[in-house]
Amino acid sequence: TFEATRCLLHAFVVCHLDYCNSLLAGCSRSLIQPLQLLQNKAARILCGISPFDHITPTLVHLHWLPVQQRIIFKSLVLLYNAVHLNTPRYLADRLELYQPTRLLRSQNTGLLTVPYSFSNKGDRAFSVNAPKLWNSLPTNLRNTGTLQHFKRHLKAHLFRECFSSYL
């Protein structure tokens, strides 16, 4: 059945796509492409579509984010926990709220200071990449009250951003 197949795919495939995927933040497309192909194959098996059919409508139907957006989602949820819940502490200590030197409208928008990095590999560090992603979010999303609301609105935001032409 569809539900049994979905359960098996989540147990054996999707959980591996999501495990520690925030470590892949900032990786090149060529490194993420094999994971995307695996997700596409899982969607094709679940929905029973041909390998020659376009996969985007299937991902939209299943409401699955592509792998790159899943990585962004995981990184931002981890950052939300560090900013709002102060857990994990070792990540919260590496983050700094943006404090302008004079009064600006942006001072109460929940922005984070993005540290300067000296290399492309440094740009992949959580302390650099995550604040860039966080600052690119809409203000109302950054100031969401609870973790569950943040996750729901973040997934909807990333889904709209990724599949805007299909919605």
Task: Report on this structure.
- The chain is an all-alpha fold and 167 residues long.
- Helix content is 59%, strand content 0%.
- It has 9 helices and no strands.
- α1 (2-18) packs antiparallel against α2 (29-47) and α4 crosses α7.
- The longest helix has 19 residues, at 29-47.
- It is elongated, with a radius of gyration of 18 Å.
- The two termini are 27 Å apart.
- The mean pLDDT is 86.
Write the SSE topology.
Layout: H1 2-18, H2 29-47, H3 56-62, H4 67-84, H5 89-92, H6 120-123, H7 126-135, H8 139-142, H9 147-162
In short:
The protein is mostly helical.
Number of H/I helices: 9
User: Low-confidence stretches at least 5 residues in length (pLDDT < 50)?
Assistant: none
For the secondary structure, the number of strands is: 0
Net shape: elongated
Helical coverage, percent range? 55-70%
Question: What distance separates the N and C termini?
Answer: 27 Å
Overall average pLDDT: 86
Tell me the major beta sheet: none
Structural class comes to: mainly alpha
- β-strand percent reads under 5%
Q: Could you state the order of secondary-structure elements as H and E?
A: HHHHHHHHH
Radius of gyration: 18 Å
Quick tags:
single chain; 9 helices; mainly alpha; about 170 residues
